[in-house]
Amino acid sequence: MNGLPNPSHSRAVLIGTSRFTKLPQLPAVRNNLSGLADLLRDDRILGLPAKHCVVIEDPVTSDDMLDPILDAAHEATDTLVVYYAGHGLPDLKSGELHLALVGSDRQRMYTAVFYGHVRDALLESQADRRVVMLDCCYSGRALRFMGGDRASAVVDQASAEGTYVMTATAENKEALAEPGEVYTAFTAELLATLHDGIPGRGKLLDMDTIFNHIRGNMRAKSRPIPQKSDRNTAGQLTLVRNQARRWTLGRNRARRKRHSMPPPMEAQPFEADGKARESADRRAREEQARQEREGTNRRAREEQARQEREGADRRVREEQARRAREDERQELGMEARRALEFLETIERLRAGPPGAGKPAGPLEL
Question: Is this prediction's pTM over 0.85?
Answer without folding.
Answer: no
